[in-house]
Structures are given as C-alpha cells and as structure tokens.
C-alpha cells in the first residue's frame, strides 16, 4: 500500500512538473524553445555516442582524469577537430541567417523569357536564402545603419539560379576596382584598429558616386525594421529571351508583402540594448510561428529599341531607371517556410554566385557583373574548397561534368564515365539552345561623375523637409571627428548635390561642434551608471521613457 502511495505521488509530481514546464515554455518565443522542442521530439537519446571514426564511446573514455591521457583516442580526435572547426569568415556579409522555402509562379511571363522556373502558373521551385548585414563581422549588431542583403538560390530543373540582392535599389559603384578600395575604408584603421570616419569621408569625396548609396543609408530607408520588412533588389540589368529569341533587358525586384517598415535611431538603440541579433530572431520566430515571410517578384522591362531612346545609362548600377521609361510585370512570389536544421551546414557553407543562371536568362552586361563572375568562385574555392559545388546545400538537382577528384566532397566522382571531352564513348554531351540570341551587345560606360541621380533622390524620393533634415543630421554626425579640411570638402560636394543639403549639413555640423563635449561625456557616464537601475524597471516602461525623451530632444 505504501509503495502504491509513493508511486501515485511520484506520478502526480512528474505530471505537475511537466505541466509547469509546458506552461512556462509555451510563453517563450520559438528561438528560446528550440532545445525544449528537440527534447519533446526525442523523448529518448537519439543514439549511442561515438568517436569521429564511428566506434561506440565507452563512458570511461569521456574523462581523462586519473588515466593515461595518451591512451584516450577521443581526446585527440575531439580537440584536433575543435581547432579546425572554423572556416574563413566572409570578408563581407559575414553575419547572417537563412531559411528554406519556395518560389511560386503566379503570372504568365512566357512572352519575355523561356526560363522554365518562371513559366507555368502554380509551379513551385525549392530555394534557400541567406539574409545578412554587409559590413558587420560574425559577432556584430543587426541594428546599425548599413546595407542588408538576401542571397537566394533556386534549385531549378535547368540548374541553380542565384540572385544576390541588397535592400537598396542602387549599388555603390560601377568600377570593379573600387570594390577593394571602398571595402578597406569600411574596415578598421590598420593602426588604431577602430572604424575611422576620416578614411571613409576622404574616399567618398574623392569618389562622389558612392554618396548616392550613402544618402539612401542615412535616410529613413537605411534602417529597416527587420529582414521581413524590406524590399530586395538584385541590382544588375539582366538580358532575358523567350523561345523565339526575342530579347529584353530587365531589373528584378522582390517586394515585401508584409509592407515596408523602418526603425528610427532611438528604436534601433533600444532594440540593440535588448538584443543585437534582433533581425535574426525576428526572422526565425516568424517562420517558426508560421507567419511565413514572402516577397512578390517583379521585373522592370526595357526592349532593345527602348535602350536607344532613354537619356540615361540603364546599365549604370549607381542610378535608378527613370520613371515612365519602363514597364513592370509580376512573375511570382518567394516564401520562406522552413528554418534550417543546422546553420553551419546550410547557411555558412552556402555558396552563391551571380553567374549561376539558367536558359532564358543571360548574364548582365555591366563591368561589375563581369568581375563578380570571376571572383565569387575564387572566394568560395578559398573559403570552402574546390569542390564547394558538391556540398549538399549548393548541389544542383542534376549535374554531369568532367570535374573529378580534389578535396572532398566529391559525391560519386562521376564513377567510371570518361573523364575528358570530347570523347567517343557517350560521356556527357552539350546541348544547343536554338533560341539564345547570337547578337552581342557592347555597352560603353561614362567615367564622368553625374550628381543628378543624387539630387533626384534628395528632392523627389525624399518628400519632406523633416526627412531631409534627418539625413543632414546623420551626415553631420559622421563628420564630427573628421579633420576640418575634409569637412569643408565634404560640405562642398554635398552642396554640389543640392544647395539646401550642403547648408543643412553645415548648420548641423556647427551645432554639433558647439556641444560641450565634457558635459556630453558626463551625460553618457551618468547613463551607464544608471543602467542597473533602469534594467530593474518593466521593459515597456523603459521603452516609453526612452522614446519620450528622444521625442523631447
């Protein structure tokens, strides 16, 4: 009887504890429930712990104390793997998160392209995408004012189709050599190891075309409220063709279906205090809660005849196409509905190349694309190895090549098929795309600096004086610690863009210079000293206080 009572009590306690755990953990966000959900899915251990060589690990070999350390094979295997488990960090777009999903055709665009992936209303194609910040390293914050990206790989029946996109509709440069030069200005000063506004403004004033993107970033568009709430642009002008060989020149655009939303500096600062990984958390939770993020895929179209009529270079990545010179059609939508199982396997090893195209879509004609098609594979060969295309997340649905051997993975290594081309023994044979255009388009770009697109952004896309003032304030803030001569040069260039912009930045900079630096440092110190006290307040009250004070200032 006593044993029965004990059993009943134990059962009740277990049920009670389980109920409490379930109640508490359902209140957590999906990010914080991940390990508990794994436990629910696997009520028992998923298998026997083995060494890297596959042999079962005896529990006595999980410790080395009071043993002959050199007899513990597992110590060497695990530790040597640990020191090799990192691969080189991406030079740009190091920090990111991704997910799996699909592309669905919603409109008939067969008159423009023969690409199978874009034809057949209702057709779905699996894909993987990687969202990222551009400049931050792996441990950086999501909430700084910089470009965001989506790198997208569609696994089509005709090969992988990759799009490398930014959240702004223009690119920084159109001269490929400027990439490394610009990137070095965004990295840390080689002596101080600090980010340096002086080197950035020195470069921007010597290369004013970069200021178009800088204006976008310092505007309200520069800080989206999460990856789900931003539009995404592949930027290049792609040449596409239909089954009759008719050619069109298009810009693809991914428009968020949830609606555009941006953060103020105060909101970003408040969120950054709570979680610098806000963008990643928001994306993961949305997918886990089945609020699947999606984007509508459109394309802006110019014909060959249109190219002869426009009064601007449509292949210039640093400017927008003028309204009224093109037409827009909808193709379909992308949806992300599945978080990855393992970030390293599916996202860190993900290799994307804008030159991964399919029949019906030809490579862009600008010089930046031509350089990217060379150096993206080179970067991936360095970071992931010469057979990175065989890694599961990068592998196409079908491939037959004459590439063999090298560092794993090699898949089936083409088994015993002939290893040279051409051959007479039925190895893989090329096909003929009879619809592919044969006429070559030659594009000549101007080296002149054109500030008109920057003026149009400031005066037309930015539609309120309050918004213009915020841009000026952000620019002035970045100029505060820059030498006086460089400040004058920057204001001169900004005045050439728009007289009002130059005047606003000059005035804002003067106000900033007159701020008592000692008093400002004392205020910051006081804020830091009061962090502990503020952290004890309810979160919603703290946020209200922060936003209220920001509004008053």
Automatic annotation (TrEMBL):
- Could you tell me which species this protein originates from? Spodoptera litura (Asian cotton leafworm)
One GO cellular component assignment for this chain's record is: peroxisome
Taxonomy of the source species:
Eukaryota, Metazoa, Ecdysozoa, Arthropoda, Hexapoda
Q: List the GO biological process terms.
A: hydrogen peroxide catabolic process; response to hydrogen peroxide
Task: Please tell me whether the keyword Heme is annotated for this protein.
Answer: yes
GO MF terms, alphabetically ordered:
catalase activity; heme binding; metal ion binding
Report the family membership: Belongs to the catalase family.
Q: Which PROSITE patterns match?
A: CATALASE_3
Q: Which SMART domains match?
A: Catalase
> Which PANTHER family does the annotation name?
CATALASE
Protein's name according to its UniProt entry: Catalase-like
Would you indicate the residue range of the signal peptide? 1-19
Q: What range(s) does the Catalase core domain occupy?
A: 50-429
Alphabetic keyword roster: Heme, Iron, Metal-binding, Oxidoreductase, Peroxidase, Signal
- Asked if the keyword Iron belongs to this entry, the reply reads yes
A Pfam family this protein belongs to? Catalase
